[in-house]
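Q: Sequence in, structure out?
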Amino acid sequence: MGGRDGAEWRRARELFGSARRITALTGAGVSTASGIPDFRGPNGVWTKNPAAQRLSDIDSYVADPQVRVQAWRNRAEHPAWQAEPNAAHRAFVDLDRSGRLGALLTQNIDELHQRAGLAPDRVLELHGTMFRTVCLDCGATGPMSAALERVAAGEPDPPCRSCGGILKSATVSFGQSLDADVLRSAQRAALDCDLFVAAGTSLTVHPAAAFAELAAKAGADLIICNAEPTPYDHVAAAVLREPLVEVLPELVAVPVVDSPDPLRTWGDPSTWS
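A: Exactly. Output:
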């Protein structure tokens, strides 16, 4: 990519400096520096152990008690409980404080964006959160910590205390649909920006990955920051491969260039004419 002085970096800095409303999409790569492994990277959870994907498949989870038992073990041992936000998370907080972050869409379930300082209503958790539980039968929700206390006390597959149904984390597994309200808000955010930044995501899981293409088709510039190639690299105005803890703070620190022209996006009805 030519290093920090290459064409990709020059273009990325130019776009960040001129952007006035930025929508971001983050994936597992944003949290790897916090000690949370990604899924599809060279050292990803599923790369090393393809069978682990069954734990994230809703049909397997419902049908096989042993899958649920292993899933609960994994939840109890998940590194997110000890993880701390890193410089990539904090960069988005700085971007929000500058007044230019429209929304942050995330495929992550670790809540590190919120813990870094982003307001919960600024973060759209496309795949839910691991900090809550939900009953697949009655829909009752509760804190994950309470369920894990039951696991530690000897319940390998704790049932719902309201109805006795199957309990799982409040995350979206393969085979489940995204929350309709979150999906609509994410679509609006993708349409209502002049720059869309995809960071730490392979852009292979849909519908989340399609937001990058949607934004580009609506006229926004697209910057992809990811260690590995993605299916949308050819759509991007700039593609950066360097570590996100370096890339994102550097981009957010680019001086803003004021423009006298009004911001026009497909997501803003006041600009339709």
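The beta strands are 22-26, 101-106, 123-125, 128-135, 141-143, 167-171, 195-199, 221-225, 238-240.
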